[in-house]
Amino acid sequence: MSRAAPVQVRGEVLSLRRVGAYHAMTILAPGIAEHTRPGHFVALAVGGPDSGLLLRRAFSIYKTSDRGVYGGTVEIVFAVVGQGTAWLARRDVHDPIDVVGPLGHPFSLPKHPVNAVLVGGGYGTAPLLSLAEALRARGARVDFVLGAASEDRLFGALEAKRISASVAITTEDGSVGERGLVSDVLPGMLARSDCDVVYACGPMGMLAAVTEQANAHGALAQCAVEESMACGVGVCMTCVLPVIGEDGITRMVRSCVDGPVFRGDRVRWADVGTVPPDCLGAPAAGGQP
Fold first, then answer.
1. Per the structure, how many domains does the chain have?
2. Which of 62, 202, 231, 285 has the CA that lies 20 to 30 A from 172?
3. Same domain, residue pair 148 and 112
4. Around Cβ 258, how many Cβ atoms within 10 Å?
5. Domain carrying residue 64
């Protein structure tokens, strides 16, 4: 399948609703929804035309509809964590939204039926739900492990139960499911489902733990990373992280265009946020090239 070029469109807010601690926004975005695959994201301009908020905000795509009364729509899920997301949360129906997408490399789907475990942390579950539908369409078995700090920060649990063979839920405060982290219950799920591949989206620490457990089980891990992305198109270099290439050489790659989905065993999780000294192009000792 050829990769469609991203487009910039003047979108429009069709709905905005609260989902626990999060906000779910549906945006009219013709030309984007039609080419979206699970794992793609969009970059939204925030703050309005007179704002000092110059950088776009990147959001995983939760759902799409390529047809309807208004045309193609995309839905995103976000938490208010700063001025940009606070501005989004104050939008009204019919407000304009400048959207670029679909962006990034999506999840790779298997050519043959597999046993897949999908692991979501907080609203990181959002892109995994459409992925589950795509996997099931290919005859795959799908199981979920969902985790969050508390019940109000858990996302998509009911939807996950509807479309999967089983769901394990953890919360750090024990408000729902088992008290603890997804990594506490993941090994048991991998064994019970005879897992072949793990798909994960959530905080970096969770992705590192998921990759380690998938490797121990002999399963391949695909991880959608949560790096800060300012431009979304590979220009600003704010979202780089160290990834081992097929040639065994570590390079600083851009999450927005080379990801956000990476093979978990290729990401040097312990070195995220740094430039490892053995990375291609890293400064030599003493800062000399």
1. 3
2. 62
3. yes
4. 18
5. 7-103
Q: Which two tokens stand for residue 40?
A: 């793609």
Contact in structure between 145 and 182 (CB atoms under 8 Å): yes
Last residue of a domain, one of 202, 226, 250: 226
Cα separation of 267 and 269, whole Å?
6
In a domain, 25, yes or no: yes
Is the residue at 2 inside a domain? no
Burial of 127 from C-beta contacts in 10 A (0-12 / 13-18 / 19+): buried
Give me the helix-helix angle, 182-193 and 204-217, nearest 10°.
30
End-of-domain residue from the set 226, 246, 276: 226
Give the CATH number, domain containing residue 83.
2.40.30.10
My answer on whether 254 and 217 are in the same domain is no
- Dihedral through CA 68, CA 128, CA 8, CA 233, nearest 10? -170
Amino acid at 228: S
Give pTM, 2 decimals: 0.93
What six digits make up the tokens of 83?
A: 């001025």
One digit per residue, the tens of pLDDT, for the chain of length 289 reads 446 689 999 999 999 999 999 999 999 998 899 899 999 999 999 988 777 777 889 999 999 998 766 679 999 999 999 999 999 999 999 999 999 999 999 999 999 999 999 999 999 999 999 999 999 999 999 999 999 999 999 999 999 999 999 999 999 999 999 999 999 999 999 999 999 999 999 999 999 999 999 999 999 999 999 777 766 677 777 789 999 999 999 999 999 899 999 999 999 999 999 999 999 988 876 444 4
CB distance 32 to 9 below 8 Å? yes
d(CA 87, CA 251): 36
Helix or strand or coil: residue 156?
A: coil
Please tell me whether residues 87 and 39 are part of one structural domain.
yes
Contact between 130 and 197 under an 8 Å Cβ cutoff? The reply is no
Asked if 216 and 132 sit in the same domain, the reply is: yes
